[in-house]
Amino acid sequence: MTVLTRQRPRFAEPPEALRRLAAHPAWRWVVRGIVLGLMAFAIFGPLLNMLLWTVAERWYFPHKLPLEYGFSFWSRVFAPRGGAVESLTNSIAIATGTVVVCLAMAIPAGYALARLRLPARSLILLAFLLPQAFPNLPVYINIARIFYGFGLNGTYLGVVLVHTTYGLVYAVWIATAAFAAVDRELEEAARSIGAGPVRTFVTITLPLAMPGIMASAIFVFLASLDEFTGTFFVGAPDVQTLPLLLYSASAGGNYQIASITALILLVPSVAFMLVVERFLRADVLARVGR
Questions:
Q1: Mean pLDDT over residues 87-99, rounded?
Q2: Total-model pTM
Q3: Which domains does the chain have, with CATH numbers?
Q4: Which of 53, 89, 146, 246 could be cross-linked to 261 through a Cys-Cys bond (beta carbons 3.0 to 4.6 Å apart)?
Q5: Three-class HEC string of the chain
């Protein structure tokens, strides 16, 4: 009696060089290098192109690099008629006002959401996300119609208020997480030695939550500094900011001026994000949205 056995198909042995390559770890580093190189090109390629436009005097197709380099467009941007200095001043003033309004609302709201047992706490936190849940364009168009009835269109106060609707989500959510990360035992220890609720908040809770609050202020400042849509519908043409100047230059084909303006906006964003990395602790990030 014979037993039939199924034989496995025999494949051709790979070449010796291919087996050595697969066993050698160097090919993995080559693949990683290619992937990292492509990622670096995708991230820094547009930045490099923007930097080239900031110093390009003449650059047109089909040339891969500028034909002439110089800084004449920088002097045009910062000239009195260029509008960059006025736009930068307006942007900083509006962003600062937005931070003040947002923190004035976020500090008490964040403390209440972190410390009090509110029945609709999750719904309150979700309500601050509503401006982000819908497309910005219809939201800002309706805000502009409402502001027009109150005479706020074309005013700095109107622009600050419309930026506040966008920045409150950062301020309230991060402030809530910052207050939630403060150890309650420290507050109880201060109360046990006679400190009242206000003094405990001012001397214990607020200083410990201040790094997270400062991080939220930086997020609000950067969001206001880069905001275009709300400023366009509420403030233009009376209130001129750097994003509006960037849009006007890009629409008119002035790529040098647009690139210089974009670089001015990029520098504080990178600098402040490095500061946020030091302020925003891991325990605060773990409590965002909770």
A1: 92
A2: 0.78
A3: 16-70 (no CATH), 82-286 (1.10.3720.10)
A4: 246
A5: CCCCCCCCCCCCCCCHHHHHHHHCCHHHHHHHHHHHHHHHHHHHHHHHHHHHHHCEEECCCCCCCCCEECCHHHHHHCCCCCCHHHHHHHHHHHHHHHHHHHHHHHHHHHHHHHHCCCCCHHHHHHHCCHHHHCCHHHHHHHHHHHHHHHCCCCCHHHHHHHHHHHHHHHHHHHHHHHHHCCCHHHHHHHHHCCCCHHHHHHHHHHHHHHHHHHHHHHHHHHHHHHCCHHHHHHCCCCCCCHHHHHHHHHHCCCHHHHHHHHHHHHHHHHHHHHHHHHHCCHHHHHCCCC
- pLDDT confidence bin for 18, thresholds 50/70/90: low
Q: Which two tokens stand for residue 53?
A: 């436009």
Amino acid in the structure at residue 16: E
